[in-house]
Amino acid sequence: MTTSSLPILDRDLQSGDLTLKLAEIAEEAARLILPFWRSGTAVETKSDDSPVTQADRAAEALILERLAALYPGVQMVAEEAVAADGAPTQTDDWFWLIDPLDGTRGFVRGGEAFTVNIALIHEGYPVAGVVTAPASETTWRSDRPGGGALRRQYGAVHEGEAHAGAEWRPIAVRDRPQEGVALLSHSITDEEATRLAARHGCTHWQGTDSSLKFCLIAEGRFDAYPRTGPTSEWDTAAGQAVLEAAGGRVLAEDGQRFRYGKPRFLNGPFVAIGG
Ligand SMILES: Nc1ncnc2c1ncn2[C@@H]1O[C@H](COP(=O)(O)O)[C@@H](OP(=O)(O)O)[C@H]1O
Ligand SMILES: [Mg+2]
């Protein structure tokens, strides 16, 4: 592997330019995905029983091409490539985790909660991440390390109409209110959701697909996202980077910071929490 682009990658990470460039890529992928949404696009079932569409594949191909052009030689671990070719058995110090379309089930149902996710892992932890929600034309990103988290609504930028929402605005987690609200996957029962929410000090909960859950906690609208069922590392890494930058935390069952590069890139249980 060539490591020649690592100095440039690290320079861009430290300046915050990295996630600005990643946001452009994720938004380009989002524009590619959107025409497939609510279009009755064909759905195939992967070996793990999860759905995949042409939108997932087209978006992943675009992201891989853009990343390889910007930072050649950095290892890329992406959902559809792993589904097709298997997972790499080793990870480098630096690697990308890419989920071109998270929340595919919701996407296929015509729901709005689906996202494009790009994260950079360094020595086992997400150090930069970008999440884009194509349906609402919104992007969340971590800024330079220690620089917080930001959100923008990008649609108007490309229609050529300057409007306030198109600016990057800082976001932050909220202090836990008396009646906290948890976000949970639709993949669990109502009983399980109520129990999980209560375990993490929340009196209410709401079901939401995809990594959008991390972003909604990062911007201070919700309080926790506990997950006991399986996810893959590309489902959570970018959301974790955004949430941590906004002042939140993602913890494994042992209370330690949630880490990456695990066997087959499979996540165990975790909880994402705001303030
Ligand atoms: N058995 C399993 N193993 C690994 N990941 C799983 C899984 N069941 C669900 N997931 C992951 O959970 C994600 C959906 O989470 P949520 O329910 O919060 O929307 C899916 O992302 P994709 O839609 O990208 O496939 C999928 O990767
Ligand atoms: Mg996913």
Number of domains: 2
CATH superfamily of the largest domain: Fructose-1,6-Bisphosphatase, subunit A, domain 1
Mean pLDDT: 94
Radius of gyration: 17 Å
The beta-strand count equals 16
The side-by-side strand order for the widest beta sheet comes to 3-4-5-6-7-8-9
Largest sheet: 7 strands, mixed
Based on secondary structure, the structural category is: alpha+beta
The level 1 CATH classification of the largest domain is: Alpha Beta
The general outline is: globular
Ligand catalogue: adenosine-3'-5'-diphosphate, magnesium ion
Q: What is the helix content?
A: 25-40%
Enumerate how many helices there are, as a single number: 9
Subcellular location: Cell inner membrane
GO molecular function: 3'(2'),5'-bisphosphate nucleotidase activity
Function: Converts adenosine-3',5'-bisphosphate (PAP) to AMP.
Organism: Brevundimonas nasdae
Description:
The protein is of the alpha+beta class. It folds into 2 domains: 166 residues, Fructose-1,6-Bisphosphatase, subunit A, domain 1 (Fructose-1,6-Bisphosphatase, Chain A, domain 1); 94 residues, D-Maltodextrin-Binding Protein, domain 2, CATH 3.40.190. 33% of the residues lie in helices and 28% in strands. The strands form 5 sheets. A 7-stranded mixed β-sheet has the order 3-4-5-6-7-8-9. A 3-stranded antiparallel β-sheet has the order 12-16-14, with helices on one face. Strands 1-2 form a two-stranded antiparallel ribbon. The mean pLDDT is 94. Adenosine-3'-5'-diphosphate binds next to strand 4, helix 5 and strand 13.
